[in-house]
Amino acid sequence: MTLRGLLTAASVLTLAACVAGPPPEIATPAPTLPPTFFYAPDRSEAAELGSLLPWEDAGFDALAQQALAYSPTLAEAIARIEQARAGAGRAEAERLPSVGANTSVTSTRTNPNQFSSSLPPGISFDTERVSYAANLTARWDLDIFGRLKAQQRAALARVDAADASARGVRIALLSEIAASVIDWRTLEAREKEIRSDLVAAEDLARLAGVRERAGIAPGFDRVRAESSAATSRSRLSALASERARLVGRLVALTAQPTAQVQAALAKNDGALDLPAAPPTLPSTLLANRPDVLAAAATLAAADAELAATARKRFPVFDLSGALGLLAFGIGDLFDSESVVGSLAGTIAAPLLDFGRIQSEIDGAAAEKKAAFESYRGAVYTALGDAEAGYGLVAAADSEAQAAADEANSLQRAARLANTRYEAGLADFLTVLEARRAADASGERAAAALGRARRARILLWQALGGSDWS
Asked: Which terminal CB of the chain, N or C, has fewer other CB atoms within 10 Å?
């Protein structure tokens, strides 16, 4: 075919492919978010986002560092990033020429009867021949219509998605550890309050026993006082199962043995603060939440995949060449006459595929639609989590304050009843009822305070978990 014929064929193929038109347009409008969070605090009382984590707790700090270094879940997420980067490297390499080399030794034996016996006189040929070859080959897809470039964009977007997912794993890991450590500290505070109730109940039981033996009080008073002490012991024993569950959870999160986890939990520097909730805008969730970033990157990858699939309808321009040596004797391999070569240009385009490529395009378009809806879902999930987080902090703080006020009031009433009893102004039943009412009030206050601290971890995670130490 002449050069003019080759150019004509290329033009026809190009025009034939272009008739199919561009890929379908999939609308991806940005989700509309409210200007502020409904439960967000005033800026005058707000704190930094990073302060919501209990970094001042030495036990949490030690366990968090161990988890970041040894967690299998986090290591798996990092491996996913490396896998995505390898895919991006392959996509980039596909746009460059590929160069190869090969050598061969070929032995051929020919049956002379295949040429019949009518050869001219004096004409003969070797029935056995050995050839020696060494070649350098090259191939390059010119990617005129950008199919390989779109595939590279998709691969790079997958790297971003893997990176955001790994960040999400890290945030979830720190959140779980922080919540578990707070639950452990809450157990310690509850145990302290229960032991205080137990001491008070045992004192009443001894006093009731003395009064019973002196004949000035019925045995029923002693029984009721002892039942109150038994209730405190039962509550105290129930904490053991909660401790075992928390230790097991921390072993799984940190990938550390039980002894090391318990040693870290033993590092208690005292009570934790209750920082105010940090102010932020819903729009910042798009920049902070890893799941939103991962969904946005997945949408970008789906868009690039759609573009790459649509470009399958266009011609592929391929250049290939080879330069080598071919000789039929090992000593002649490097003679100038042994140099051989080839150069070829190929144009290939689909003309009639009965809808195969269009089906792939429709599938890629549907994938992009699904990715966009997943992105919208991630945005509104983030918005809902943040709203719930702010509301939970406000409600938990109110509950903790009310529980503390209740405990203080009931403990004061118990002390007052005991003072009146010692002064002869109240009977033993009044003291016992006041003590029973005060029992567990301190434990309830400690549990409510723990829930308030835990609510801050949920808010930290909902807001994207940035600004960690």
From this structure: N
Q: Which two tokens stand for residue 248?
A: 């097991």
At what angle are helices 147-213 and 58-70 packed, to 10 degrees? 140
Of all residues in the chain, what percent are helix, strand and coil, respectively (each to 5)?
Answer: 65, 10, 25
Strand order in the sheet with 316-327: 98-109, 128-141, 316-327, 339-348
**Domain residues of the chain, as ranges?**
29-104+130-462
Q: Residues 113, 297: contact at Cβ < 8 Å?
A: no
Cα–Cα–Cα angle for 341, 345, 351, rounded to 5 degrees: 145
User: Per the structure block, which two tokens stand in for 53?
Assistant: 């984590």
d(CA 237, CA 240) in angstroms, rounded, equals: 6
pLDDT at residue 371 tops 70: yes
**How do residues 278-303 score in pLDDT, each as one tens digit?**
888 888 888 889 999 999 999 999 99
d(CA 413, CA 402): 16
pLDDT tens track for 438-449:
888 999 999 999
Contact 304, 368 (CB under 8 A): no
Backbone φ and ψ of 291, nearest 5°: -70, -35
Residues 237-273 have pLDDT tens digits of 999 999 999 999 999 999 999 999 999 999 876 666 7
> Can you read off the two tokens belonging to residue 320?
């290939």
Return the C-alpha torsion angle 297, 298, 304, 309, nearest 10: 170
Look up residue 2 and give its DSSP letter. Answer: -
Q: Is residue 81 within 8 Å of residue 169, measured between CB atoms?
A: no
Q: Is the pLDDT of residue 10 over 60?
A: no
Alpha-carbon span 9 to 345, nearest angstrom: 13
**Bridge partners, 136 (sequence order):** 101, 323
User: Can you tell me the distance from the alpha carbon of 450 to that of 444, in angstroms, rounded to the nearest whole number?
Assistant: 10
**3-state class of 270 per DSSP?**
coil
- Tens digit of pLDDT for each residue in 42-97? 765 657 888 889 888 899 999 999 999 999 999 999 999 999 999 999 999 999 99
Q: What angle do CA 202, 207, 209 make, to 5 degrees?
A: 95
CA distances from 197 to 123, 203, 221, 229, 419 (A): 119, 10, 17, 8, 17
- How many Cβ atoms from other residues are within 10 Å of residue 119's Cβ? 11
Q: Which two tokens stand for residue 33?
A: 């978010």
Residues in the chain: 469
**What is this structure's pTM?**
0.82
Whether residue 311 contacts residue 65, with contact meaning beta carbons closer than 8 Å, is answered with no
What CATH architecture is 29-104+130-462?
Answer: Up-down Bundle (1.20)
DSSP 187-219: HHHHHHHHHHHHHHHHHHHHHHHHHHHTTSS-H
